Amino acid sequence: MSDDRRRGAEPSLGTDDGQESSSAPLPPPPPPDSQFERIREMLAQPVVASFIAGGVAGAVSRTVVSPLERLKILFQVQSAGRNEYKMSVPKALAKMWRDEGWRGFMAGNGTNCIRIVPYSAVQFSAYNFYKRFFEDEPGSNLGPYQRLFCGGLAGITSVTFTYPLDIVRTRLSIQSASFESLKKTSAPGGQKQKLPGMFGLLRNMYKNEGGLPALYRGIIPTVAGVAPYVGLNFMVYEIMRTHFTPLGEKDPTAVGKLAAGAVSGAVAQTCTYPFDVLRRRFQVNTMTGMGYQYKGLLDAVKMIVRTEGLRGLYKGIVPNLLKVAPSMASNWLSFEITRDFVMGKRRSGFL
């Protein structure tokens, strides 16, 4: 048999000369993942999704309660013998409006959002990172004390990264307030001196108050308060979230999430509030005209209790509790909505 006949007897493996193969066609290869799908997959990782959702939640929650947040700070830093804001919350808010208008309600909120977006983002993502070490399997629930511990570590991590912005936010909140001893008219023509902004304050504090340590003044009482606060917040929220979930459902309704966030925030804030007062006092400790100069943490506690009583450690708690319900409720709801949107069907576990 000739070579041509042998070749003709062999089955064709191609489509030369327009001839189709007699064998079944191979299925087409799966299309490669698009760049968009790869990005979605990366963003859907629990730590990354929590970072994004935490940032959104922080900005939403702080803007909602900005007037009460600022009023709380003004109450906290007001020492004994000062009466500018020694009044009820409604009257204090009215005074703030008369003196400064809408800008007074939002004073420091821009800086607060710049601070709270990375703070909240780091906090939620750090919690998801730390909880991996305690999970039996990915997405499994933690026990209450494990949530408390992971939340405490997440709080310490987030506050360490963003503390300089927190101290600047405090300074911005009080520098335009009507504290008589803080008013300045040194500008030409007797006009009020122009107040520095966020970066101006950071630069002034660094140059005039001791360099980098000045930007972390008060961080010890801050960490002492933030660790249990964040830990309690995560622990109580998951407990209340389960409580508000209807029987047979995996998740609570939006109202249930709002209620769980409000309860968790109120419990955590009330238990750790004296540390928040100490934090604010130390953040303005070197400002002239504030009426106090504390040597250390114990000295501050002794002086506050001696001159202002135990109530001094809870100054500003009323506007704080008034703000904590809408703040934490909107924080947790915004977090869950954003996280579910980013993760889609990949979501597992509560947080």
TrEMBL record:
Annotated function: Mitochondrial transporter that mediates uptake of thiamine pyrophosphate (ThPP) into mitochondria.
Annotated region described as Disordered, given as residue ranges: 1-34
GO terms of molecular function: metal ion binding
One of the GO BP terms on file: transmembrane transport
Keywords from the named record: Calcium, Membrane, Metal-binding, Mitochondrion, Mitochondrion inner membrane, Repeat, Transmembrane, Transmembrane helix, Transport
Membrane topology category: Multi-pass membrane protein
Cell compartment(s), UniProt: Mitochondrion inner membrane
Family: Belongs to the mitochondrial carrier (TC 2.A.29) family.
InterPro entries: MCP, MCP_dom_sf, MCP_transmembrane
PANTHER family from the UniProt entry: SOLUTE CARRIER FAMILY 25
One protein family per Pfam: Mito_carr
Main subcellular localisation: mitochondrion
Name the record gives this protein: Mitochondrial thiamine pyrophosphate carrier 1
Solcar repeat extents: 45-133, 142-243, 252-341
Keyword presence, Ion transport: no
Organism of this sequence: Westerdykella ornata
SUPFAM superfamilies in the record: Mitochondrial carrier (SSF103506)
Annotated Gene Ontology cellular component terms: mitochondrial inner membrane
